[in-house]
Structure formats: structure tokens, C-alpha cells
Amino acid sequence: MFLNSLLFYIILLISFSKIDFLLGTKKKVHFGGEHVKTFRFEDPPTKIGERDIYVRYGGKDVIIFNPKHPPNRLKKGQSFWHRFFFRRRHHPRYNGFKVESLLKRRSLSFKIWYNVWNQCKRPDCYSKHNFAKVYGMFFKEINLYRKLHRSAPLKYDRKLGMEALKEATKCANAGTLITFKKYRYSTLHAIFNIEYVPITIYKWYREVSMYNFKSNVIIPHAEHFSILVWANTTRIGIGIARNKNDIYMVFKFYPEGNQNYRFKENVHRSAYNKYNFRI
Questions:
Q1: What is the mean pLDDT of residues 134-147?
Q2: Edge-to-edge strands of the sheet including 54-57?
Q3: pLDDT tens digit string along 192-202?
Q4: Is 11 exposed, middle or buried (0-12, 13-18, 19+ CB in 10 A)?
Q5: DSSP 80
Q6: At residue 76, does pLDDT exceed 90?
Q7: Selecting from 3.40.50.1370, 3.60.150.10, 3.40.50.1110, 3.40.33.10, what CATH number does the domain 100-266 have?
Q8: Domain residue extents for the chain
Q9: Predicted TM-score (pTM) of this structure
Q10: Computed over its alpha carbons, how large is the radius of gyration of the chain?
Q11: Virtual CA dihedral for 151, 152, 156, 162, nearest 10 degrees?
Q12: Strand runs (DSSP E) across 33-98, as ranges?
């Protein structure tokens, strides 16, 4: 008795689920396009699955399409949350360019750079609000390199920053770097395409590979590095200006670095130790 009731219930469910199809009232079209023909249940298509031609039907209407002229939609798209969590998104303007591909990955300097820039290394992130984030990240990166070479962290000086900004703006307006000679402090300036801004300090620091720690005079190919880590320097000011996709950057350091016969006491070797150095 129980089996008979169960069988009757299953048949009843199947009948109701197929009632639209049996009555011929289901008219949903799976694909939209130009070549649509009416399909009758009594007269199915003669060929299904022919090479490069597919027939999709279910209901009353059928469409035959060629891969050269596909329908607008072949399958259900992925959900918003799937795209949000699992797809890597790039700003369409930069075509997936990765500035970190230019860096020496297995180095401590890369570890420091990555710690500073990893969360905001795309132009559409750090260019907002006149590069406001870049000031802080430059400041943090410089002090981490100084810590590595046993130099005290710099303090940000607003007056130096205003002067650096004026010089950067003049350079941007002129479309070239202009040297402003000042004897009270050291000046570093650079011009980079907007995509390469994050590696400015990193490139200067990598001059350490050309520096001679036994020398007590300036090393021409490593003068940016020695200014960055000069122990007697205490304050810094930064200015950033833009001309189209070119970014002009000026850094002011006080007191002045790179003084001859004082290099040994101001530029120290790396003091990295995995037990006492924390980023």
C-alpha cells in the first residue's frame, strides 16, 4: 500500500512539472538572435552536435548558430561576489603592469619596499588627492632604510616641504628638472612616469651596491644612497608636482649630507639581523 502511494505521488509530481511542456504553453527562448525557427515536438531536428554547429532547444523555439556568429550569452555569468573575491582586477589604463617586476625580489630592500607599497602600488590608488599617500610612503620607506644603516629616523619639516613643493611645481611647469643651489641642505630630485613613482626611493637606495664604505669622500654613482642614510641629517621635506603623466619629485634634507671627509662617521654598513630588525 505504501509503495503504491509513493508511486502515485511521484507520477503526480512529474505530471505537474511537465504540464506546460505537454500543453505547448512553454515559450521561453534560451538564446536571442536573428535566425530563429519554430520547433515542434513531433518533428525534431535531423542533426544535433554536427561539427562547429550546435542546436539548443527546450520549449517551443530553437536556434541554430555558428561559432563565427555566436549568441550574446552562452552561459550564466559568474556572480558579483565570485568576481570580487577571485578575479584579479586591473585598472584598464595600465593593462596589468606590475612595477614590482622591475625590482630585485630576493633582497632586503625589496622586503622593505613591499612592506611600504604593497597595499597601494597602482597609480589609480596613490595618485588620489595630489599624491597625498605618496608623501607618507616615501617618508616611511626612507626611515626604514635609515634604520637598516643605524641612522636615526628623520622628522618631517613643513617649511622644507613647502620649499620642495615650490621647486617641484617650477620643474613641472618648465617640463624639465631645474637645479636650485642651496648650501644649507641637500636636495634630491627626480622625474618619473606616473607608473614608476613607487620605485623612486628604492632605485636610489640600490646604489648601495656601488658604494665603498671604506671611502671618506663622495662616490659619484652612489650619492643618492649616502644622502638617504646620512646619520647627521635630522629633517626632511618632500614636494610632488605633476605634468600630464610625468611626476616631478623634490626631497630636501637638513642638515646637509655628503660632506667630504665625514662619510665614515655618517654612512654605516647595513646592520640587519633577523632577530633584532623588525619592519
A1: 96
A2: 36-38, 61-65, 54-57
A3: 999 999 999 99
A4: exposed
A5: H
A6: no
A7: 3.40.33.10
A8: 21-77, 100-266
A9: 0.65
A10: 33
A11: -40
A12: 36-38, 54-57, 61-65
